[in-house]
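To whoever is covering the structure queue this week,

Two jobs came back overnight. Logging them here so there's a record in the thread.

Job A:
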Amino acid sequence: MSGHAVVAAYHDLWTVEQSFRMSTSDLKARPIFHRTRESTEAHLTIVFAALAVSRVVQARTGVSIKKFLTRLAPLRSVVLRTGEQRHTIHPVIPNEATELLENLPGEGVH
């Protein structure tokens, strides 16, 4: 194996280690205490799907998933019901958050 191949393989290992650190902290993954194989596999599927989505978000926005979530966490819609009427109040999205969202696939900010 050439020196370049060894360095490339090491960088890949670092990415895997970073993913596990991210899955336990930024994704708020918790230890599982499932009793059946099916529930354990379901939990792992959800965690790995979240990890894959996180990687896409990081690659497209250029910010860590932690920063991305911190910037978007306050943005929430509210539904108010007054009698028979229902009103949805959408948040004002700051320019910084709009720029992040525009880098993601889909239709962008609504």
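Job B:
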Amino acid sequence: MLISISLFGQIEIKFPPTRMVYQRNTSGNATLFITGTYLSNIGKIQARLKTRAGEPGVAVSWTDIVGAVSGNVFSGSLSASGGRYDLEVRGLKNGQQVGSSVTVEKVGVLSITDS
């Protein structure tokens, strides 16, 4: 069962759920896959990773994960190093944010040897 997270009905994140953990590769990075839906008239989808206080990680700035949206469904990805993050997703139209961003808390990038 997947949990959907939405705010004001603009964007709904279908994946990843809160507390999702991704496995790092041998280079220490992971690809975070992001899927969801949107209701507003937007042009593209961006995502970022914010570090959590007291947790390891390297923040990832706003990055286009979908350059040209269509069909009210989106899918994209970000690359991240080991750590624990809050994933934030937003929609833009003509360079301006549409509605509020949506946050998925406690997304982790770990190795099976991390404790």
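Note for Job B: The two ends are 27 Å apart (CA to CA).

Please reply-all if you pick these up so we don't duplicate work.
Q.
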